[in-house]
């Protein structure tokens, strides 16, 4: 175990931001924390990183007590904050050289630039970088000391699809080198694809923890029928269809969860026909439940609001 | 461990300098602004030494005594005399072409013969403070001398004037140490702003996630400010020497010692001023609020005894007054306002107190 969190509590006045959280992360794992804004993700991560102190509970990182020897822990972890936090009047190369000097051991700047496709921007001032380039630079800064654990707070936000896939490769390569990645993300597909385990956190508590597959299977035996219709059919009518376990209507987007897809689907089409909606059912498809569905079911909210 | 901290420190220092050199606003205020200030002052005051005051003379009658007075006035080297009628001369005075108008009455001979004092009237503009301070005493002196000659009285007492100052101080000699003190004030008092910006942009937080300790961050910032301060001082002193012939007569060692002490003091005050400010926009007015009174009440550009009495305690408390006086003593050997050890002690006291308060109050997040 490279991270061990036991009964962590952090309060801000009357608000309990982190409410008795316990979990562990194994070596070589890609671990994600999912949750709506204000759920306590950032506070938890920052306590583990040694940026904040907990009110109670115990955190051990790489076998070290973060509250006792924060500097030793910081030597061996890499941190990317959600805000890029860059010095605007330095170049990409300069800022990486600067950060490399903070550590006893660091990777050659050249290699890191290559890894995050920043070689051509080496001499560009940070203030002239695009949002995506700044985001990649802030990841590069987190990896400059060849950390045993990389903490990445929404690393792919603001990246174009190609850069996103590029970063996924970087994360998978690190995993293969035996490094641990602790990340947060808003992208459920990303979490499903990349992560060995996810913790869903809401109101300062972990409400679900497991591999994406375990979570989906644990919460959904059913599959989902999804379509768009304007106006959408009434919720009661949909709930009355055979096999339906749940219905979520969000504006024109309708998701019907069903444990008996053939039965539900044929009744749905008959319903549409009698109500004269056939022409208006768009993008009708049947899909597996996803982490997004799990999240919705657990928290009653979509992750992006 | 130590070697690796040195590496972080020197990299951080290098980064501070690079960022400074790429910041045009900072460059302007550090170098161009003090020089501009000095050039303007230098040009405005460079003519001061052979200044002359226009004085209008109105003789209402053509008497012997009137001629004598006119001659007496013409002998005053800084008076530029011109004659005319009362109305014309008063108009010139109001337009600011003349500094004073002296009127000799027509009946002067008659009055003197009759043993009555003749009234010689001097018109002046009281808003022109130099007129009141310079012209009137000279006029009194001239008239007094006339009286003595006319009455043929012996001279029981005579004042012999001898300057004890080794070299005559010109206005520019007085200004240059003031400009140096002003640049130290600016450099130091604005020193806290980068940290506020770093705090606001979460750069301090990001640095906090590395093994770098806070002392290294602060030390690199202070060292870089000290270096810029020294560079600024050298440039000001060199330009003052070549453009205005201002010589540093005292010890360079003392000068730079005082410069370092002053810079540290104002950096501390600057840090203290912004220790709780959340944003750069919020910090700026606080810094201005500290800086402006200090600049204008300190007496670095004009003598502090011009201040009203109730301001004196404030003037006496302002550290900039002591820095300016110290620079003035070392650089141009001006007569001290305070003994040198007091200057050093006051600056050091401000340094210690504001540093202690900053350590207590400064919010890192």
What does this structure look like?
The complex is a heterodimer of chains A (305) and B (365). Chain A has 305 residues and is an alpha/beta fold. Chain A contains eleven helices and 14 strands. The radius of gyration of chain A is 22 Å and the shape is globular. With 365 residues, chain B is mainly alpha-helical. Chain B has a four-stranded mixed beta sheet, sandwiched between helices. Classes of the chains: A alpha/beta (305), B mainly alpha (365). At the A-B interface, helix 2 and helix 3 of A face helix 1 and helix 9 of B.
Largest sheet of chain A: 6 strands, mixed
Binned strand content of chain B: 5-15%
Distance between the termini of chain A: 34 Å
Q: What are the secondary-structure elements of chain A, in order, as H or E? A: EEEHEEHEHHHEHEHEEHEHEEHEH
By secondary-structure content and strand pairing, the structural class of chain A works out as alpha/beta
Q: List the helices and strands of chain B in order.
A: HHEHEHEHEHHHHHHHHHH
Structural shape of chain A: globular
List the helices and strands and how they pair.
The complex is a heterodimer of chains A (305) and B (365).
Chain A: E1 3-12, E2 15-25, E3 30-34, H1 41-48, E4 56-61, E5 64-65, H2 70-76, E6 77-80, H3 92-100, H4 109-115, H5 131-143, E7 149-153, H6 161-176, E8 180-184, H7 188-194, E9 197-202, E10 205-210, H8 212-219, E11 223-228, H9 235-239, E12 244-250, E13 253-258, H10 261-274, E14 282-287, H11 291-299
Parallel strand pairs in A: 3-8, 3-9, 6-7, 7-8
Antiparallel strand pairs in A: 1-2, 1-4, 4-5, 9-10, 11-13, 11-14, 12-13
Chain B: H1 2-21, H2 24-45, E1 53-59, H3 64-74, E2 79-83, H4 86-94, E3 100-104, H5 108-113, E4 121-124, H6 129-151, H7 171-189, H8 193-200, H9 203-208, H10 214-244, H11 252-273, H12 280-297, H13 312-317, H14 319-332, H15 340-361
Parallel strand pairs in B: 1-2, 1-3
Antiparallel strand pairs in B: 3-4
Helix pairs in contact in B: 1-10, 2-7, 2-10, 3-6, 7-10, 7-11, 7-12, 7-14, 10-11, 11-14, 11-15, 14-15
């Amino acid at each position: 175990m490279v991270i061990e969190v036991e009964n962590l509590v952090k309060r801000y006045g009357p608000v309990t931001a982190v409410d008795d959280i316990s979990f562990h992360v194994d070596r070589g794992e890609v671990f994600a924390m999912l949750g709506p804004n204000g759920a306590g993700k950032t506070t938890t991560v920052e306590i583990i990183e040694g940026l904040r102190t907990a009110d109670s509970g115990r955190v051990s990182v790489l076998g070290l007590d973060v509250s006792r020897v924060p500097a030793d822990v910081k030597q061996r972890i890499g941190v990317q904050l959600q805000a890029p936090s860059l010095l605007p009047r330095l170049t990409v190369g300069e800022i990486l050289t600067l950060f490399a000097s903070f550590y006893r051991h660091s990777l050659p700047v050249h290699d890191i630039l290559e890894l995050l496709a920043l070689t051509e921007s080496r001499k560009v001032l940070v203030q002239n970088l695009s949002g995506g380039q700044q985001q990649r630079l802030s990841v590069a800064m987190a990896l400059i000391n060849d950390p045993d654990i990389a903490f990445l707070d929404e690393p792919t936000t603001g990246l174009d699809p190609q850069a996103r896939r590029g970063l996924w490769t970087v994360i998978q390569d690190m995993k293969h080198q035996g490094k641990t990645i602790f990340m947060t993300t808003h992208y459920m597909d990303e979490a499903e694809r990349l992560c060995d385990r996810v913790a869903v956190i809401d109101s300062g508590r972990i409400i679900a923890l497991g591999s994406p597959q375990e979570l989906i299977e644990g919460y959904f035996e059913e599959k989902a029928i999804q379509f768009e219709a304007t106006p959408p059919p009434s919720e009661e009518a949909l709930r009355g269809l055979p096999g339906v376990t749940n219905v979520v209507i969000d504006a024109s987007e309708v998701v019907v969860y069903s444990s008996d897809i053939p039965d539900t689907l044929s009744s749905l089409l008959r319903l549409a026909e009698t109500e004269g909606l056939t022409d208006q059912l768009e993008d009708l498809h049947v899909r597996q439940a996803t982490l997004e569905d799990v999240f919705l079911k657990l928290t009653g909210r979509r992750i992006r609001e | 461990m130590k070697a690796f901290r040195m590496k972080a420190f020197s990299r951080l220092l290098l980064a501070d300098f690079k960022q400074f050199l790429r910041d045009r606003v900072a460059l302007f205020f550090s170098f161009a602004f003090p020089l501009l200030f000095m050039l303007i002052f230098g040009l405005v005051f460079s003519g001061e030494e052979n200044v002359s005051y226009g004085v209008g003379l109105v003789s209402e009658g053509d008497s012997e005594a009137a001629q004598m007075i006119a001659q007496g006035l013409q002998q005053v080297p800084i008076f530029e005399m011109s004659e005319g009628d009362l109305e014309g001369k008063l108009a010139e005075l109001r337009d600011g072409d003349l500094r004073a108008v002296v009127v000799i009455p027509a009946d002067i001979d008659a009055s003197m013969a009759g043993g009555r004092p003749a009234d010689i009237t001097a018109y002046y503009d009281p808003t022109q403070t130099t007129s009141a301070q310079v012209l009137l005493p000279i006029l009194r002196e001239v008239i007094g001398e006339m009286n003595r000659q006319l009455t043929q009285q012996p001279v029981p007492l005579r004042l012999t004037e001898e300057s004890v100052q080794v070299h005559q101080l010109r206005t520019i000699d007085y200004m240059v140490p003031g400009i140096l003190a002003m640049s130290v004030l600016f450099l130091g008092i604005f020193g806290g702003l980068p940290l506020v910006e770093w705090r606001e942009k979460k750069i301090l937080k990001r640095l906090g996630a590395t093994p770098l300790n806070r002392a290294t961050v602060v030390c690199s910032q202070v060292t870089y400010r000290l270096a810029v301060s020294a560079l600024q001082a050298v440039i000001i002193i060199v330009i003052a020497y070549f453009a205005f012939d201002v010589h540093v007569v005292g010890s360079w060692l003392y000068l730079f010692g005082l410069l370092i002490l002053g810079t540290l003091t104002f950096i501390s005050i600057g840090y203290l001023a912004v220790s709780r400010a959340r944003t750069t926009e919020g910090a700026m007015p606080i810094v201005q609020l500290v800086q402006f009174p200090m600049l204008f009440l300190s007496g670095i550009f004009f003598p502090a005894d011009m201040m009203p009495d109730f301001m004196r305690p404030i003037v006496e408390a302002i550290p900039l007054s002591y820095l300016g006086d110290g620079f003035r003593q070392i650089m141009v050997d001006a007569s001290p306002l305070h003994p040198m050890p007091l200057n050093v002690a006051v600056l050091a006291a401000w340094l210690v107190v504001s540093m202690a308060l900053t350590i207590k109050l400064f919010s890192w997040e």
